Amino acid sequence: MTFARFTIAYWCVLIAALMPIVCAGIAKYGTMGTPRRDGGFDNNNPRGWLARQTDWRARANAAQANTFEALPFFFAAVIIAHILQAGQTRLDILALLFIVLRIAYVMMYIADLPKARSAIWAAALFINVIILFSGYR
């Protein structure tokens, strides 16, 4: 029996899928032990609670939404590149670069550095396009 190899690019897919959860955790950080009546996290209405947040918590929640939005294109690009038999080393490096850029993007979002955030977002999108076409012959 042969087993398919789980490539670095596929591990990057998993990391990308977990990033929104990390962003949500950052938005909720330090509020779990605080009672709801005192502004603590409201697990009965988590989306409403997150919508009322300001400053870095609101930006972490916005980063969460954007990481969700980036997932379909990244997933498809990696899968299509694999199907088209893109060079594995190149694909792995590009997928890792995408993840590094997306982590930097989240950090810039939370730190309220919009120009850097937008530049990193554009770079990650560009890398994603390169991933998509990396198997093109």
What does this protein structure show overall?
This protein is mainly alpha-helical and 137 residues long. The protein has one domain: Membrane associated eicosanoid/glutathione metabolism-like domain (Four Helix Bundle (Hemerythrin (Met), subunit A)). It contains 5 helices and no strands. Helix 3 packs antiparallel against helix 4 (88-110) and helix 3 packs parallel to helix 5 (114-133). It is elongated.
Question: What order do the helices and strands come in, and which of them pair?
Answer:
Layout: H1 8-28, H2 46-51, H3 55-83, H4 88-110, H5 114-133
User: Class in CATH?
Assistant: Mainly Alpha
Give the structural class: mainly alpha
- What is the CATH T-level topology? Four Helix Bundle (Hemerythrin (Met), subunit A)
Mean pLDDT: 92
Number of strands: 0
Determine the CATH superfamily: Membrane associated eicosanoid/glutathione metabolism-like domain
Specify the helix fraction band. Answer: over 70%
Helix-strand pattern: HHHHH
- The proportion of residues in beta strands is under 5%
Total number of domains: 1
* Number of contiguous helices: 5
CATH architecture title: Up-down Bundle
Residue stretches low in confidence (pLDDT < 50, at least 5 long) are none
Major sheet: size, sense and barrel closure?
A: none
Shape: elongated
Distance from first to last alpha carbon: 31 Å
Question: Nearest-angstrom radius of gyration?
Answer: 18 Å
